[in-house]
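Could you join me in thinking about how sequence relates to backbone shape in a protein? We need material for that, and I hope you will provide a protein of your own picking. Once you have written the record down, we can walk along the chain together:

…
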Amino acid sequence: MTMDESEIKENVEAQVEKAPKKKGVKKADVITREDIIAAVKDMTVVDLADLVKALQDEFGISAAPMAVAAAPAGASAQEAATPEEEEKTEFTVVLKSIGEKKIEVIKAVREVTALGLKQAKDLVESAPQTVKESIAKEEAAVVKEKLEAAGATIELK
């Protein structure tokens, strides 16, 4: 069942008649959203600014963007403008230097990776090298702890 244009128009007019009447608004004064948008497109910048001010005064609102979060006390303007970094979920463990206990570090590398003796030795001797990539924070902390206990210097990225 489809309605033709005249039926739709009659239906809309009937709904307008039943709608509660607002003071100063007549049936002929009904303006559509498209009419408003068309009128705004034809306005000058000055006229549009005046309209925004009038709407703010009429409805008690502000067109200014709301602040998401206040900057901590003592923060610079640059720090306040930069959103906080998202907490990382994946880490890379980098062996920066092996320290004094090369053999202990090789053993620790073998323990935290699936590398054989030769591969672990080559990795340790060619520091700085990535030991593990894209691992969870907890696992990265464990790997870092084991390697530092063996005497290595570690960086988490």
